[in-house]
Amino acid sequence: MSPLLAAFGFGLVAAFPVGALGFLLGWSVEGLTPAPRVRALVWGLAFLLPAAVLAATLLGAAIPLPQPQRVLLPAPLSVDLTEFGPSGAERPRYWAASAAWIAGGLLALSLAGVLFRATGWLLARGRLAAVVARARPADADLAQAVAVEAGALGVAPPRVLIGAGVAEPLLAGVRRPAILLPAGLVETLPRETLIRICRHELAHLVRRDNLRLPVEELLAGLFWLSPLTSLLRRRMLAAREAVCDEIAVGAAPPEARRAYAQALVDVLRQAAADPSLHPAFTGRERTPTAMRLDSILHPAAPISGARRIAVAALTLLVAGGGVMGANALADEARHAQPRPEAAPARSVSLPTISLPSGASFSPVRIEADSIETFKDKPDRVVYQGDVHVKGNTESTEFRLDGKPAPAGFNPRDLPPGAVKRMEMFREGDRTIMDLKTN
């Protein structure tokens, strides 16, 4: 299996536990403070955490495994091997063929979710553009008041439009943003409340929420298999709406706050069930309404220093858990390789040694399925599989299953397949080969 495919599969499967960790973080922070800005920040991090873990896993899996070092065998076999096997830490972890199909299936389903959400979002944008094209400009007094509010918030004033087919206020467009107001709302609400509603939409413009929506739609499609994705997004958007409410009402007196809250309730009652336009004022089907109204009517007190520390500690704890999890998943993915159909026998041959007299001989030849070396014990080599020892072994001490071999023992006399494993190591000046038969 490709390491990147394995990493993608791991990241998608991890979306559920990582999402649960993010939800636990958001729930804990909401218990510490009702401050909308803190809640919006934490829920935003919780929603992005699965994507961050997936990205970190993919990046880690792209790092190639280290190449094994050359092995120097102990004397009298002290020659540089040109053929050797990986150490235990670098050995591939074989996966069944079905694992690749599962990972590929998860990838296909996730990409299908991305395509579905992207298509739905583009269609909704097209319908919204048609509504904007049919809308009429608001009166000059309201447009001027919104321009003043935009200047106070540090953004260019958007267009203020009134649409007959719009159920609730919303912010439309990116390059040429416009605040779209329902005609019935403009005719019934006081001018001051309308300005505060427009200020709410301006807050979305200041925060660049319209730029975030496409990315959030794609992430929601990518992780649609996790049931926590939609829940995390709803809580994130709810906290975001509360932040914009806080900006909209500012330091308004209680009477103005009640009028704003009543306008929200009225629009919620009248709104048509059409989530495709992404309404910014009501945030229907995604805002815990009671929490939002309470935040409007009873602004939260500043968060204390101790609670700030607690929020930071919880956030770092969850982020650290995500980093460690991504590192572990990436390490597993880097080792993911398909199991070969047949493991060919491997051999390690020591080259012919020339003596000063001009004579030469080949001291030993070891055949095995795999070889394991140890960086912390360079004088130890382990051969796995059907091991055969050939050549000149007069200077080598043999053991059978850890016990000294009988006098006159010759490993070539053993039947094929008798030796399942062999450990070669150094004890003083002696080279020892311990043949394991069971």
TrEMBL record:
Pfam families: Peptidase_M56. The keyword Plastid does not apply. The chain crosses the membrane at residues 6-29, 41-63, 94-116. The keyword Membrane applies. It comes from the Bacteria. Keywords: Membrane, Transmembrane, Transmembrane helix. Residues 99-273 form the Peptidase M56 domain. This is Peptidase M56 domain-containing protein.
